[in-house]
Amino acid sequence: MKRLKGLLVFFVQWIVLLGLYFLLHQLYWFSGPWHGIASWGLMPVMGMISAYMATVRGVNNYLAWPAPPVCAFVAYWLALGYTPEGTGPTLLCALLAIFGAAAGEVVKRGPKRDSQQDSRKQAPRGRE
Question: Where, by residue number, does the polypeptide cross the bilayer (predicted)?
């Protein structure tokens, strides 16, 4: 059941990111810096959050981080009809997604106990 849940989260991550990134790439048609803000700011942060959330919910961290940069590239291609001129926003999205997936893995594992503290046993106290 856990594997099925992870697979479902994996596909939901891809579908949601592709839809959101497609909508954000529509800002290209408006004048002003809105598309740049979305490409360099919103999409990488959303990718980091989605990789974190997917990893915490059961997706392997090595499978969670590629979704944001691939979806950013494909959404640009679908929205505008050609591939991005520069690779900067996609690579920033990949870097932050790796950070998010790593953080999710650390949180998923939980706090580590001190192994020395567990292995030590209190010696019985003698009479003082």
Answer: 7-28, 34-55, 62-82, 88-107
